[in-house]
Amino acid sequence: MASQQSRCHSFSSASRLLPQPSGVTMDDSFLTEDKSTQKHKLPQKRRTLELPATPLSYCQAPVPAEAGKLPTQGAPPARCGHGFHRGTEAAAHQRETIRALEPLKAKLVNVNEECNERILAMRAEERHEISLLKKEKMNLLKLIDRKNEEKISLQSQVTKLRKNLAEEYLHYLSERDARKILIADLNELRYQREDMSLAQSPRIWGEDPVKLTLALKMTRQDLTRTQMELNTMKANFGDVVPRRDFEMQEKTNKDLQEQLDSLRASYEEVHKEHEILMQLHMSTLKERDQFYSELQEIQRTSTPRPDWSKCEDVVAGGPERWKVLAEGKNSDQLVDVLLEEIGSGLLREKDFFHGLGYGEAIPAFLRFDGLVENKKPSKKDVINLLKDAWKERLAEEQKETFPDFFFNFLEHRFGPNDAIAWAYTIFENIKLFHSNEVMSQFYAVLMGKWSENVYITQKKTVAQLLKEMTNADSQNEGLLTMEQFSTILKSTFPLKTEEQIQELIEAGGWHPSSSNADLLNYRSLFMEDEEGQSEPFVQKLWEQYMNEKNEYLQQLKQELYIELHEEVTLPKLRGALMSIDPSLDKQTVNTYISQAFQLPESQLPEEGDEKEDSIVEILQTALERLQVIDIRRMGPREPEPAS
Q1: 2 in helix, strand or coil?
Q2: Cβ-based neighbours of 197, under 8 Å, separated by 6 or more
Q3: 585-615 core/surface letters (b: 16 or more CB in 10 A; e: else)
Q4: In this structure, are residues 337 and 326 in contact, taking their beta carbons and an 8 Å threshold?
Q5: Which of 124, 269, 303, 522 suits 37 as a labelling partner, its CA being 20 to 30 A distant?
Q6: Integer-rounded Cα radius of gyration of the chain
Q7: Helices (H) and strands (E) in the chain — how many of each?
C-alpha cells in the first residue's frame, strides 16, 4: 500500500507538471515556429503525457477487502485519477491547438512560395533584359569593328595610290631627261651630217655657200631658242597631270573624304549611344537593387491590405451607402471616410461641448467658458449654412476679418444667445469632414490657412470659364464640340501647358476614342451635388491651381539660392519675384512682399532705399505666409540665354 501511495503521489506530481491549457490568449511566437521545431516539440509533449501511464496502472489495481476498513486508503486512487484526467485534457487541448494552427502554417508556406515565385519572375525578367542589352552591345561593337576595318582599308588604299603616284612621277622625270639628252644628240648628229654634206658638195645647192652658212646659222639659233623654250615649258609643266586625270582623282578623293566623314560621324553617334546605353544600364541596375531592397523591406514590414468590405455592416446606410462613399477612393481616403463616419456618430451622441476659454490662442468666435449646447444639425444643413455665409460675405464690402464676420453672421441668423452654440457646432462639423469640399475650404479660410481671396478668385475663375462657354454656345443648347471646348480652355488659361489642358479635357469627359466633332454638355461640368461636391472638372481646376502655386513658390526658393532656415532680405525677395515672373506689376509685388514680411504696404520702403536691407525674415516663414494668399504666375518666364 505504501508503494501504491508513493506511486500515486508521483503521478499526481507529474500531472501537476503537465502544461496547462492557455485558454483564450496565445503567444504569437508559436505561430512563427518552423516545421522542424514543431516536430521536435511534439515528441516531447507525447513523452510528457506517457509518464503517468505506469503509476496509473498501480493506482487502478484491486484493493484487498481488509484494506477497505482503513479510512485513509481510498483517497490516493481518487487523486491519481483526477491528475490523469487533467493531463489528458491538456494534451487533447494542445493537439487541438496544433490542428487549428496547421492551416495557418500552410497559408504562411503558400505566401512564402508566392513571394519567392514573384522574386524569381522579376529576376528572370531582369536577366532577360540584361541579355538583350548585352546582345545589342555586342552588335554595336561588331559594327564599330567593321567600320574601323573599312577605315583602315581605305587608308591603306590611299597610301598605296600615293606611293604609285610618286613612282610614276619619278619615272616620268627620268624619261623626260633621257628624251632631252637623246634629242640633243640627234640634233648634234644631224648638224654634223649637214655640215659635212655642205662642205663636200657646195655646188649642189646652186647657191652661195656663205649665204647658206648664214641661213643655217640663223636657223640653228632659232632652233636653239625654240628648244630652250620647249625645255622651259617641259621644266615648268613637266609634273602637271592632265585635267581629266586630275578631276577624276579629285572626285575619288572627295568621295573617300565624304565616306570617311560619314564613318566618323557614325562612329561618334554609336559611341554616344553606347555611353547612353551604359548609363541606362547602370541606372537600371541601381533601380533594380533599390526595388529589390524595397521589396525585402515591404516583405518584412508590410501588413495585409485591409478588407474594406467589412465596413459595410458598420456604416449607417448599409452596403449601398458604403459603396457610394468608397467609390473612386484609395486606402488613405477610405480611412478619412471611415473616421468621418465614426466621428459623426460620436458628434451626434454629444449633447454639450466644453468651452475653450478666453485665451489669446483661441479664435474669437470660440471664446467661451462653460458648457455649450450641441445643436446637432444634419450635414446638409451645415453645408447650406456655409453657402449662405459665403453669399453674404461676397455681397458685403469685407471690412472686418473673416472670423468676426462669421460670428456676426451667426448672431444675425440665430440671435446672440445661440450664436456661440452654433459656432461650436459648425466648427466641430467642418473640422471633422475633411473630404467635403465646402466644409474643408471654409475651415481653411476660417482658421487662416488660406486667404478668402483664394476661394473668391477661384470662384470667379470658374464663373468666367462658364461665361466663355455660354458665349460660344450660339444655339444656347448647353452643348459644345471638343474643339470649341479646347479652344476656350487655351484662351482662358494661356499659361497652362498642353498636358494640363489635356488633363482638363479628360476631366470634362473626353476619351481617346472621342473625336473633335463629339458634343459635350458643358453645363454639367459646373454642377454640384446636395453636399456641395463639385464635378471632377472643377476639382481638377482646383488641383492644378494648388500645384501651380506650389511650383511657383518652389521656383522662388530656387531663385534665392538659400536654405529654408536662412534669412532673406526684402530686395533679394523682390529681385527673385521679378526674375521668375517678369510680368508682375509693382502693386502685385508690393502685395506679395507685404504678406511675406507682415508689413502694411504703406510702410514698405521705396525700391533702392537703404532701409530695405534692414527688413529680413526667415525664408521658410516667408514662404508659408505666401502660401496663404492667392499667389500665381502673371506671365511666362523669360528663357535663360543659351551657353
Answers
A1: helix
A2: none
A3: eeeebbbbbbbbbebeeeebeeeeeeebeeb
A4: yes
A5: 303
A6: 52
A7: 19, 6
Kindly report the average pLDDT of the chain as a whole number: 80
Give the pLDDT confidence score for residue 38 in this predicted structure.
43
Q: What is the mean pLDDT of each run of 10 residues along the chain (643 residues)?
A: 41 38 39 42 40 38 40 44 71 89 89 93 94 94 94 93 93 90 88 76 60 87 90 82 87 94 94 93 92 86 72 72 74 76 78 87 87 87 89 81 89 88 89 84 88 88 90 86 87 89 84 68 85 85 90 89 87 89 88 87 80 85 89 75 41
| All residues at 6 or more sequence positions from 386 whose CB lies less than 8 Å from its CB, including other chains | 426, 430, 438, 439, 442, 532
Q: What residues does 479 pair with on adjacent strands?
A: 521
**Helix (H), strand (E), coil (C) string for 126-152:** HHHHHHHHHHHHHHHHHHHHHHHHHHH
Determine the Cα–Cα distance for residues 355 and 358; give it in Å rounded to an integer. Answer: 9
Q: Give residue for cell 488659361.
A: 493
Q: Which residues of 499-535 are buried (b: 16+ CB within 10 A; e: fewer)?
A: ebbebbbebbbbeeeeeeebebebeebeeeeeebebb
Can you tell me whether residue 493 is helix, strand or coil? coil
User: Distance of alpha carbon 62 from its chain centroid, rounded?
Assistant: 85
Domain with CATH 1.10.238 in the chain: 451-546
Which of 51, 50, 69, 47 has its CA nearest to residue 10? 51
Q: Which amino acid is at 103?
A: P
Burial state string for 4-28 with b = 16 or more CB within 10 A and e = fewer than 16 = bbebbebbbebbeebeeeeeeeeee
Please state, in angstroms and as integers, the Cα–Cα distance from residue 357 to each residue in 18, 196, 312, 415, following that order. Answer: 62, 153, 40, 21
- Residues written for the chain: 643
- Amino acid identity at 474: S
Distance, in Å, from the CA atom of 597 to the CA atom of 605, rounded to the nearest integer, reads 12
Instruction: Write the CB contacts of 331 (distance below 8 Å, at least 6 apart in sequence).
Output: 305, 306, 308
Enumerate the β-bridge partners of residue 368.
357
Q: Which three cell numbers stand for residue 286?
A: 541601381
CA separation for the pair 61, 77 (Å, rounded): 9
Per-residue pLDDT tens digits for 52-99: 443 333 333 344 443 344 444 444 444 445 556 677 888 899 988 888
pLDDT of 199: 66
Four-point Cα dihedral 458, 461, 462, 465, nearest 10: -170
Residue 171 cell numbers, joined: 619615272
| pLDDT score of 455 | 87
For residue 431 the three cell numbers come to 473640422
Burial code (b: 16+ CB inside 10 Å, e: under 16) for 113-137 equals eeeeeeeeeeeeeeeeeeeeeeeee
Q: Which cell numbers in the block locate residue 288?
A: 533594380
SS3 of 46, please?
Answer: helix
Judged by DSSP in three states, 373 sits in strand
**451-546 in CATH: which number?**
1.10.238
Name the CA dihedral angle for 538, 543, 547, 553, rounded to a multiple of 10 degrees.
80
Strand partners, 520: 480
Phi, psi at residue 537, to the nearest 5°? -65, -50
* Of the candidates 142, 7, 148, 155, the residue with the CA atom closest to the CA atom of residue 80: 7
Runs of H (alpha helix) within 22-74? 35-50, 53-59
